[in-house]
Give the backbone structure.
Amino acid sequence: MGLEEKMIKGVVFGVFDLMHVGHVKMFEWAKQHVDYLVVGINSGVNLAPHKNKPILTPDERLYLVNACKYVDEAFVFDTEEELHAYQGAHLDYVRFIGDDHKNSYSGDFLPIEKVMVHDRSHGYSSSSMRERIAKAEVKRALFTPTSS
């Protein structure tokens, strides 16, 4: 990249609990559109009541996100206000959202220059991961012989 070219930066926000293939696919897709990818990780402190509370701590999730080769920088935030302040200070960053948020997302009132929607038809989600784990544990409990 020459000195006259502006580095294109992008940002994605989420909880990123139980890091899975869907998260990595989104980071990979986003990184194809920018030179520098930032990930904001919701600590889980102020999640909506209907949302699953994270299993992993914010520090564990930050470690996993930072370990992904597509991510250049990551940080943890606690409140929507913090997310809005970050976005407001970086309106030129491409904002990446999942297609489940295309009609409404945090900070959609801000004059963000470019928003790109990621297709989540791959079917991976933290909720489905939780279900798979729960089913596997029930099956293991039911079919593991106990010693008497």
The chain has a mean pLDDT of 85. The chain has one domain: 9-143. Residues 126-143 form the longest helix (18 residues). Helices lie at 21-31, 58-67, 80-89, 126-143.
